[in-house]
Structure formats: structure tokens, C-alpha cells
Amino acid sequence: MAEAAIHFAGRGLKVQPPLSLYIHLPWCVKKCPYCDFNSHAAQGIPEAAYIDALLLDLERALPDIWGRRIHTVFFGGGTPSLFSADGIDRILTGVRTLTQLAPGAEITLEANPGTVEAAKFAGFREAGITRVSLGIQSFNPRHLQALGRIHDDHEARRAAELAATHFDTFNLDLMFALPGQTLAEALADIDTALTFRPPHLSAYHLTLEPNTPFGHTAPPNLPDDDLAADMQQAIEARLVEDGMQHYETSAYAQPNHASRHNLNYWQFGDYLGIGAGAHSKLSFHDRILRQMRTKHPQQYMDAVAQGAHIADTRMLTRADLPFEFMMNALRLNEGVPAALFDERTGLPLIVCASALERARSQGLLERGPTRLKPTQQGQRFLNDLLELFLPD
Questions:
Q1: pLDDT tens across 196-243, in order?
Q2: Cys bridge to 223: 20, 31, 227, 262, which one at CB 3.0-4.6 A?
Q3: 3-class DSSP state for residue 52?
Q4: 289 near 273, Cβ under 8 Å?
Q5: Do residues 104 and 69 make contact, with C-beta atoms less than 8 angstroms apart?
Q6: Domains and their CATH numbers in the chain
């Protein structure tokens, strides 16, 4: 580790990447059986005490981001819409007071259709939220029940209507390859979503994660790989036909409505994560660090008070960086300029020469010196493409 760090410091970063802020609000009404996020079923949310901890966390992190402007903010969870509009306003007031929040910053809040109403959406907008991301997952009541969601199809539609009323930019979050789902049902969800004219839509393939009920104790009967692939292709065709740009593996947007926060992740930008279990990636001239906060909410609050809330810190080595960069950048269908690799890692692209040549010879990466862009085959077999950049 030390030797790799010294070599990295010899080159260094000329310019720090753009910086985002991620704020984790970890409570849900109940835990979904497919979810492996750091979320906890709510049995009374200590909102005021948790916000106290968040703002102290942010204050303690200021030396790591001193002088840097924050371009986007994202409230993730959990179900951030369980918090009051006043609570969100208090957090954002603290962010504006403590940091250099850019004028016109994109500020996103994730919301569950079962936890919103018109007054709450209006309050979020007044607090400074510019974009909501609604976890619809499906408009089909049978599939919502199979997924263990707390909302029904009527609440899903009502929430989408409210988002369209209160926000210029919003995202509808859908899943496909659901238990017992047919191709027609997957497309019906897309068609229903499009009736709300969403500026952004995410379509995720349901995966069975270890240490979840779906992945471990009660795996459901999912569509086979061929049917799931047919769903993915049909969804893409339908959304592109409707004028949406398929700009990332699971993300579609109308022009000028791509998620600026997520684009910063995919372009290997920096982000400070505060809250229980939040992750950070922070670049300095001579090193790039990854951090993770204490995961359990109460333990996190206790640890922040003692200044001991950073549970893990890891410095990325020269061997780590090619895969770390490509794992993000190659999710973008148009890829990134080749020069971004040097700019964001401090390493010359030649360190990836062997992997790049193998990717191109296998038809996974387009040829050309100025852009790192996956081919259609590379987009479809993204894991195969990324494996080429794993450290030996």
C-alpha cells in the first residue's frame, strides 16, 4: 500500500474532480425482501437527533472538502420521504451554511409512493428539493405485492401525478424480470409510466442479492435469462421510440434531464457521504480515499458525537484505479473522453493498454484513441468488459 501510494503521489492530480454530497436517511416503513441497502424498518424515527448527527458529521468533514464547491446533493435511503419537510429544510439550511453549495445545484430526494402526499411534496420543493426519484418498481398490484412494497398501484399513480405537478424534473424508478412477470406485463409498466411524461426513468433488472430474503431464504421464481434479455431490449426500444436517451445501463432521460448527481459518480467524480453507512470517494493531490461511516443508525449517532464515525478508510492504489474508473465510466453508453482517465486517476492511460486491446479485440469496446466507449455488445455484456480491468 505505501509503495503504491508513493508512486501515485509522484504524478498526482492536477485538478480535483467535481464534488457531490450524499445524505443517507436509513429508515423505511418496512424492509423489502430484495433490498440489500443499509435500511432499517422504522419503529419511530429520531428525526431531530439524527439531523443533529448529520450536521455534526458534515462539520467534522469540512477539512476534507475545504474550499470545494458542491454541485449536487442526493438524499438516499431508506425512504427519505419519511422525514418531514421541515427536517429536510433544516438539513439543507445546514448544508448551505457550512459548505459552498453551487447556485442552481441539483438536489434530489428519493421518495416512496406510500409515504407522500401533496402537502409534503410542496414542502420538499419549498425546502429546496429540485428533483424527486420515486421508487414505483411496478404499476401491477400482483408484482407490487410480490416485491413486498407498501404501496399499491393506485398510490403509485397518484405519486407520479404529484411528482409531475410539483417538480420540473423527476424520476420514475421501475424494475423488470419480476417474479412471474411476462414480457407484456413489463412493457405495460413502461407504457403506464410514460403517461406521466417523466423527464427521467430508471429500469432495473431485479437481482437476487445475498443476505436478503429473496437471495437467501425465500428465492422467488424469476423469468429466465432469455426472457429477461428480451424484456430489457423491448424496454429500451419502447423508451427510445418515445424520445428518451438511453444514456446509462439502467437510465433513460429526456434531453437535459440526465441525473447530474449520478453522472458525477459515473464520470469518477468525488462525493462526500454523510449519514449511517454512507460511502465517500475523495481526491487529494497525492491520493484518492474511500470512506464508510458506521452503519447502524444509533451506533452512528453515538459515534459522531465521539468523532469516531468513520468505520473504514481505504486509499486506492495504482492497481485499483483502472477497474475503479472503468466500473463507473463504462456504464455510460457514450462512454467518456479518454483524457478523463488521466484527469481523474492521475495515471496515464497506457497503464490500461493490455486490457483496452483485449476489450477491443473481443468487440466490447469501440476502437479509437479519443474516447472510451462500450460497443452495443459491451453494453450487453458489461461484466465481461469490466473484468478485463480487474487487477491481476
A1: 999 999 999 988 777 766 666 667 778 999 999 999 999 999 999 999
A2: 227
A3: helix
A4: no
A5: no
A6: 2-265 (3.20.20.70), 321-387 (1.10.10)
